[in-house]
Design goal:
33% of the residues lie in helices and 18% in strands. The protein has helices at residues 9-15, 22-30, 76-79, 89-96, 115-129; strands spanning 7-8, 34-36, 39-40, 46-47, 52-56, 61-66, 83-85. Helix 1 (9-15) crosses helix 2 (22-30).
């Protein structure tokens, strides 16, 4: 595999399998969920080996160290060679804790949720839980 001199942050987060899609990685950057230290980063930020990024999701903060740059998306086994997960195990336990999950509530006065609304609420709760 060729060595890459420079990579965009959103592309690296996607290629290292931190996010499922590049657009999700870019959206997280735009929303201010991806930080280098205490600095919020844009999707076009240049990634360098050795940098440590923190990514805030709904319930946990994941931390990754860049070990290398990727030319394109790779399999999960190879991705581990380019990104070191520094997230403490307690953070992952928080994700499974139902008490730590934000409640999904149907607004009062909207009537009973339809089957479609129930599916959307279920999908939203899975997204927030990070599944």
């Amino acid at each position: 595999m060729q060595a890459v001199a420079e990579a965009r942050l959103d592309k690296w987060l996607w290629a290292a399998r931190v996010f499922k899609t590049r657009s999700q990685a870019a959206a997280a950057c735009h929303a201010g969920h991806v930080k280098l230290g205490d600095r919020v980063l844009k999707p076009s930020h240049g990634v360098r080996p050795g940098e440590v990024y923190s990514i805030q999701s709904a319930t946990i903060t994941r931390t990754f160290r860049v070990l290398g740059l990727l030319p394109h998306r790779v399999g999960g086994a190879l991705a581990k060679l380019y990104a070191e997960d520094l997230t403490p195990p307690e953070e992952y336990r928080k994700r499974r804790d139902p008490a730590a999950q934000p409640p999904i509530v149907w607004p009062e006065g909207m009537g009973r949720p339809t089957k479609r609304n129930q599916r959307q609420l279920k999908r939203l709760s899975h997204l927030l839980a990070g599944h």
